[in-house]
Write a structure and sequence with these properties.
Elements: H1 3-18, H2 22-32, H3 36-42, H4 47-59, E1 62-63, H5 64-71, H6 75-87, E2 91-96, E3 99-107, H7 109-133, H8 138-152
Antiparallel strand pairs: 1-3, 2-3
Length: 160
């Protein structure tokens, strides 16, 4: 393998390893949080939990199956995450009158505050992304788009 191809492979591996930015995101949330109660909650929350919370806030009142479809996740995963979010007082469960089987989720005031903080983080990420991407020409971006699409649809592991 020539040097350029090896450098591309090494860069691809670094990109996969860098993909988990959860620690930096959590640090940003903690640094920008003004609510002591939320600071405690943030110590024990995952980015996935935040995405579920955001989805609930956008679609509330909403059933777990709707959240699972929206986020392309298994229903059992949503059940586990929502249970933890209820325990942390970020969500409320509601039932329809005369129907205790269908559970609807709504964010609490505390949950809304955390969603707003998480949305601020995404605005910050988007702002920094725009600064980063502006240094490339349209032609370079089109080539990168093609490479990323090809990479996302390719597996380098071949199973017989």
């Amino acid at each position: 393998m020539d040097k350029i191809k090896k450098n591309i492979l090494d860069g691809y591996i670094k990109l996969i390893e860098k993909n988990n930015e959860e620690d930096k995101e959590k640090t940003w949330l903690i640094q920008n949080c003004k609510n002591e109660e939320l600071l405690i909650i943030l110590q024990d929350i995952t980015i996935l939990m935040l995405h579920v919370l955001d989805c609930i806030q956008k679609h509330q009142p909403v059933k777990g199956i709707t959240i699972a479809k929206e986020l392309n996740m298994q229903r059992g995963t949503i059940t586990k995450i929502s249970r933890k979010l209820v325990e942390k007082k970020l969500l409320n469960k509601e039932y329809l009158p005369n129907n205790n089987k269908e559970i609807y989720f709504k964010t609490t005031d505390l949950g809304n505050e955390l969603c707003n903080l998480h949305q601020m983080l995404h605005k910050e990420i988007n702002k920094n992304y725009v600064k980063f991407i502006e240094k490339y020409s349209n032609q370079e971006l089109l080539f990168l788009e093609k490479i990323l699409n090809d990479l996302s649809n390719t597996s380098f592991v071949k199973i017989d």
